[in-house]
Design brief:
This protein is an alpha/beta fold. The protein is built from 24 helices and ten strands. The strands form two sheets. It has a six-stranded mixed sheet, sandwiched between helices.
Length: 647
Amino acid sequence: MGGRGGGGVGQYGKLRGRVSGADADAQRAANATAPRIPNLLPRIGELFRPYRRPLTVTIALVLVSAAISVLPPLLTQQAFDRGLFPPEGTPNVPVLVELVALMVLLWLASAGIGVGQAYLTAKVGNSVMGELRVRLFSHLQSMELGFFTRTKTGVIQSRLQNDVGGVAGVLSNTIQSVIGNTVTVIAALVAMIVLSWQMTIVAVILLPVLVIAQRKVGQVRARIATKTQESLSEMTAITQETLSVSGVLLAKSFSRQEWEVDRYRDENRNQIRLQVQQAMSGQWFFAIVNVFLSVIPAIIYLVAAWLIFQDVSVTAGTVVAFTTVQARLSWPLLGLMRVALDLQTSQALFARIFEYLDLTPTITDRPDAYAVDLEQLGVVEFDDVTFRYPDAGDDTPPTLDRVSFRIEPGQYAAFVGPSGAGKTTVSYLIPRLHDVSSGRVLFAGDDVRDLKQVELLDAIGIVSQETYLFHASIAENLRYARPGASDAELESAARAANIHDTISRFPDGFDTIVGERGYRLSGGEKQRVAIARVLLKDPAVLVLDEATSALDAVSERVVQTALDDAARGRTTIAIAHRLSTVVHADVIFVVDGGRIVERGTHAELLEVGGVYARLFERQRLGGASGSYSGSDSDSDSGSDSASDERR
């Protein structure tokens, strides 16, 4: 197993093996560096632009609520100095009742405003988060195929779920906390200055030190948050890999369940450690802040006594009101510090989200892209095409090297050759899943790079070796090609794909749930459902990428019959491993080493006695040949039909 196949175990170990000790720490440290995104804070602010009106109302409510919050302490001063201990000595009950009633009304108003404020902030925050999630999902849908072959599915899922979810609380609480607490702090400071500027100086003298300390703590929390999200990404990737049907089958077939559990347990242990670190980071800071703010009232009493000895007028009401306002200052001040820490932490998450949003798809429509020319529909041509995968080194031989051919409308063209020759790459370049390195791929007479991608893909149907079905009913899987298709159209497509009789034998018929990736169906049944789905799309060009190579002989015969029926009346391009399936092709292209080395019909190529003849003879002697005439009904499927109950 040379070339790409060599070192398979080593590559598997790199991808799936557990990294331990210093290597693991170094890897996590490298992963934990949050990407640097220019203008990150303004871009976060832009997310709120569509919600200016509810934000304005929210800000107004926050300002009113903050203003109300500082009035009760001032009323408390009046209650002491005019109600309980007036200059005349006797408590003034009517004034006291009036002030207490006013305080109760203010508290009720504040509570009502708080409910409305909470609703608006929750709605805006979650709406922003929801739109951010859809925007990220939409952008990922536009990325080229190569991005997904380079990136673990679990890592992508983690960005979409864990990272976006991780900023939800910040988005919901930032407006209320920042604006409300800022206004409350400012109003409280003004009230404190009005009551006694001397005591205010004592109360706030250490606040700059606390702000500096808070920034240091925030930086630590941001680093831990990045590590935590990387760990979550790895856990999501492990879950996606090992708990899919394919992953479970692989683990069971190699008796590696315990190894997979250990791998998950190791990352889970790392996640617990990081979560504890994140929870504890800043706890000592906030504990010291709490002590500082709690001690201030006692210090204020001493300062008040000193001021009295200095003949400064300080009443009991002033002291009580000042300490009340100072206590009211503590919570919003702590809230601001916590929000500042959360914002520093969430910046790392936002950076990871924007890193994906800033990815530029390599395959996009040109500004002047146009529709497919319907008059030449079905013509496919390669003009001196060379292709090298983007991540391949410059010294790596190209996958396709100066390939040229032309397929006429309605022709059945087959591409055959040894494994790794570049056959499948041809099928990827026609629908522009990759772009050529040089040369041109022409579809209906136009360079595919000049065509609108949607128009191009609408004209092409693909049936691949690895059939993908959703965990849904057969009908829903078929309607993926044409959502508005009627039941009669589904039945017609199923009959054309030689699968209708099999579906009819299922207890639920077209409503049968196929399971994840279609695992409740046999291989041949899945392929024929996929063929029916393509037939429902009714493309002008049909691409068959080794659609029968993974099937047994009986299944292959039935599926091949369905493929032959599907190919009638349309241009068909078949990537074939078993040469017996393409002996009746109008033209066969033999690909070897990235080049077309032979072309012609089956008989012509056998007569030449070259690469094709040797491959055909090898397969014939190996029992891989056979003339599959097939049957138009499902009666020959035999073991090829299997519902979940029978498997």
